[in-house]
Amino acid sequence: MQRTGQGRVTAECRSSDGACIASELFAAYPVRFHLTSRPNNCLHNADKINEEDSKWKHQKALTCYVLGYGGGMISGDRIELQFTVKENSSLLITSQSTNKAFKNVPGRPASAVHTTARVQSGGLLVLVPQPTQCFGHSNLEQTTNVVMDRCCGATDPSLLLVDWYTGGRSHLDGGIWNFTCFQSITTVSYSSLTNSDDEDLIFRDAAKLSGGNALKRHMREFNTVCMMLLVGPRVQEAADLLLSKFSSRNKYRHEVMSGTSHQNVGDGLNTDGLIVSCGTFGTVEHSREGVILRLAAQTVEQAARFLSEHIGNLSGQLEDDPFLEILVSKQTSLNTSTGDKEPAKPQPPFAPQEHLSFGLMEQSFHMHDNNSVADMIEEKSSKADDCTTQIAELKLTSPVERRQAIVNPFVLYQLVDSSAPTGGFSHSNTVEVTHQLKLIESSQYAFSDTLLQHVWDVMLQTMTSTAPFLIASHGLLSRAYAISSESIFDEWEHIDSSLAANITSHVTGRASALQGSGILRAFAHTFPSIAPTVKIIKRRVLRSSAKKMQQRGHAATCFGAVCGLLKVDEQSCLSMFLYTTCRDMINAAVRMNLVGPLEGGKMVNEVCTQLDTITNPDTQSHHSDFELSLHRRFCLESPLTAHQVAPLVEILANAHDRLYSRLFNS
Fold first, then answer.
1. d(Cα 538, Cα 517) in Å, to the nearest integer?
2. E-strand spans in 216-272?
3. Residue 256 pLDDT > 60, yes or no?
4. Of 499, 497, 513, 318, whose CA–CA distance to 423 is shortest?
5. In a 3-state reduction of DSSP, which class is residue 153?
6. Is residue 605 a contact partner of residue 443, using CB atoms and an 8 Å limit?
7. pLDDT over 60 (residue 573)
8. CA end-to-end span of the chain
C-alpha cells in the first residue's frame, strides 16, 4: 500500500526567556516527530541582534527527531517535510536511525523524500539526519530545498546541512552499491532583497547513481559518501576551522618541515581509508562564501567520528552532538565495517565484458517519476519562456532537421588544436590527485587500464553534469539572429550562472573559469567574424564576476557560445568538447610519466569512439526505443537535468589543492 506522510515544524524564539520552541508541529502517518527542549541560558531580544557572533553559543537549538513507522520505505512511499526557522531561533533536525529504502517492486513508483526549509534572518538550521541506506534493488529519490531570507541591516541566516548515504549492506542483497537507482538533489537559495518571490540559486548538487558493477568498481573500497554545507555567520567558526585544515597544504608543509611523516593517519588523504576535501562556493553579492566539505569513508562510523570531532555540538549551539548517536549505539544494521572480517580481495578494475560500459549512467535517461518530457518542458516554461521554446524544439524536430550547414572543416581543426592558448594544458582534471592518492595504482593489473577507467568515469560525469549547459549555450547563440542582442546575452548569462551553481568544487570552478576566459580570448583573435560578439560576452563576464564576486564565464558555456556563433552543428560541438576534455586528461598523464604518448593516443581513441555511441543522435545500437531516445536527448540538452554519476570525482576534485607536490592547477 502506498503511503504519503507529511510533517511540518516551525521553530521560533520565545520573547520571555529566549528559548527556542516549536510554534507549529504537524505530522501525518507514517511520519512522527519527537522534540527535546531545555531552558535557555540567555535572553535574546532585538536590542542584542547586532552583537558579536559569540552570543549564539549560549542559545541551545530546539532538537527535533524525525521518526517513521514501519522501519523504512517501500515502493511508492512518499514523505514530505517542511521546516521553518523564524528570526534569531535555532532548529536541529536529526533522526534516530538511518533512512532505509527497501527493494523496489517492478512497475511501482520509486520511494521519495522531499524536504523544504526556510531560514529567516539570524536563524540557524542544522539539518543532519542519519545517512540514507539503499538496500539491494531499491529505488529512492530525495530532494532538499533550502531558502534563506535576507533582510537589510539584519544578521544573515545560517545553515549546516549534511547529506550522506551508504552503499547498503555488504553481507546481503548482493553486496554494497547494488540498488537500482538513487537520486539526490540539494539546492540552497537566497531570497531576493527586493522581491521575496525571487530567489537567487547559490548552490545545486544533484546526483543520480545507477547501482551495479560499474558503481562498485568506481567506489573501490568506499561505502559511505558525505557532503556537508556550512553557510552563514553562526557556523563561520566551524567553517573556518575546516578550511584551514582541509582546503590547503599549509599545515601539510609544516608537518613535513618539522620532520614528521609526510602523510599522517587522519589527514584525510586516503592514508586510513578516508578522503576529505573542502572548499568554498560563492553565495551572494558582498556576502561571505559558503563552505562545502566532501568525504568518502569505508564505514559510516568512520564518517560519523570525523563529523563528531570537527562539528560536534557546534561550539555549544546544540545541546548534544548529533553524530554521537551512531558511535554510541553501534548499530549493527549499518554493518559497513570490515573490522571483524577479512578485508575484501581486490577486484579487477573492470570485467572484460563491461569494458568502458555506460553502467554509471544507466539510469540517467530514465524518468522514474512518470513525468513525460512534455511535463518537464511545461515546468521549465514557468521559469523561462524563451528557453522553453528552444527545449521544446527537441520534441518537434528530428536530429537531421536540427543539423546546421556543415562549416569549413578547417574551422573544426582550429577549435580542437592543442596549440590554441585556452589553458587546458595546465589542468589534469583529477588525474594527478587520483594518482597521488593511489586510487589508480594496482600491482595486480595493468596500470593503463586503471587510468583508462578513471578517465572514462570522469567523461561520463562530464556528459551528465556539464554537457547540458554546453548544448544550451550552443543552441542559444546559434539562433542569435532570431533573438534581440540584450535578451540573448541575458539568457546566456543565466545559463552560465546556473552552471556556476552546479559546480560545487572550487578547484573545478577555478579551472573552468580560467579555461573559459582563454577560449574567449583565443577564438576572438582566431575568428575575426565573431570577434565583436565574443568581446561583448567577455565584457559581460567580467562585469558579472566583479558584481557577484563569483567566477563566471565557464569553459562549457564559452565553448558552446563560440561554436554556436560559428554555426558549428550541435553534435560536432559536443564531440569536440568531450574530445578536448579527454585529450587534456591523457596528456596530463603523459606529462606525469604514467603512460607513454603512443599508449595515450590509443586511450583517447578508445574513449572517444565509445562516447560516440551515445552522443551521436543517429546511433541506434544502445537506445533504439524512440521514447528513451527522446529522454536521452532531453537529459543531455536541458540544464534542468544535470547531475553527477561518479561521486568520487567530486570528492577528488577539491582534494587537489591539498597536494603538497603538484604539477597542475587542477
1. 8
2. 224-231
3. no
4. 513
5. coil
6. no
7. yes
8. 50
Structural contact between residues 570 and 615, judged by C-beta atoms closer than 8 angstroms: no
If you count them, how many residues does the chain have?
Answer: 666
| DSSP 8-state assignment for residue 622 | S
Per-residue pLDDT at 332: 38
What Å distances lie between residue 228 and 81, 193, 222, 261, 290, CA to CA? 20, 26, 18, 29, 11
For 292, the grid coordinates are 562545502
Q: Model confidence over 137-164: pLDDT tens digits?
A: 899 999 999 999 887 767 889 999 999 9
Residue type, 3: R
Predicted confidence (pLDDT) at residue 410 exceeds the cutoff of 70: yes
CA 547 to centroid of chain Cα atoms: 25
Query: Omega before 233 cis (within 30°)?
Result: no
Looking up cell 618541515 gives: 257
Within 8 A by CB and 6+ apart from 35, the residues are 22, 25, 62, 63, 64, 65
The identity of residue 382, as a single letter, is S
What is d(CA 455, CA 451) in angstroms, rounded to the nearest whole number? 6
CA 584/CA 433 separation, integer angstroms: 15
Q: At 376, which helix (H) or strand (E)?
A: helix 373-381
Q: Please, which residues have CB within 8 angstroms of residue 340's CB and are 6 or more apart in sequence? A: none
**d(C-alpha 460, C-alpha 207), whole Å:** 13
- What percent of the chain has pLDDT above 90? 32
Give the CB-side neighbour count of residue 521, counting CA atoms within 13 A: 12
Q: With bands split at pLDDT 50, 70 and 90, how would you rate the model's confidence at 273? A: confident
Spell out the SS3 assignment of 72-96.
Answer: CECCCCEEEEEEEECCCCEEEEEEC
Q: Is 46 left (phi over 0), alpha (psi -120 to 50) or beta?
A: alpha
Burial 361-394 (b: 16+ CB within 10 A, else e): bbbbbebbeeeebeebbeebeeeeeebbebbbeb
Q: Which amino acid is at 168?
A: G
Q: Using CA atoms, how far apart are residues 93 and 100, in angstroms rounded to an integer?
A: 17
* The model's pTM: 0.84
Largest CA distance in the chain: 76
Residue listed under C-alpha cell 596528456? 587
Contacts of 237 (CB under 8 A, 6+ apart): 53, 315
Rounded Cα–Cα distance for residues 267 and 271 (Å): 7
Q: Give me the residues paired with residue 11 across strands.
A: 22, 85
Are the CB atoms for 657 and 279 separated by under 8 Å? yes
| Amino acid in the structure at residue 220 | R
Main-chain phi, psi angles of 9, to 5 degrees: -135, 130
Q: How far is CA 453 from its chain centroid?
A: 21
> Cα dihedral angle (496, 540, 392, 572), rounded to 10 degrees?
-70
Is the Cβ–Cβ distance between 471 and 637 less than 8 Å? Answer: yes
User: Which of 515, 501, 450 is closest to 206 using CA atoms?
Assistant: 501
Of the candidates 142, 93, 94, the residue with the CA atom closest to the CA atom of residue 118: 93
3-state secondary structure of 462: helix
Q: Taking the CB of residue 167, how many other CB atoms lie within 10 A of it? A: 24
d(CA 145, CA 128): 14
d(CA 632, CA 468): 11
Note whether 649 and 499 are within 8 A (CB).
no
DSSP reduced 3-state for 286? coil
Report residue 186 CA to chain centroid gap.
Answer: 8
Residue 395 near residue 659, CB atoms below 8 Å: no
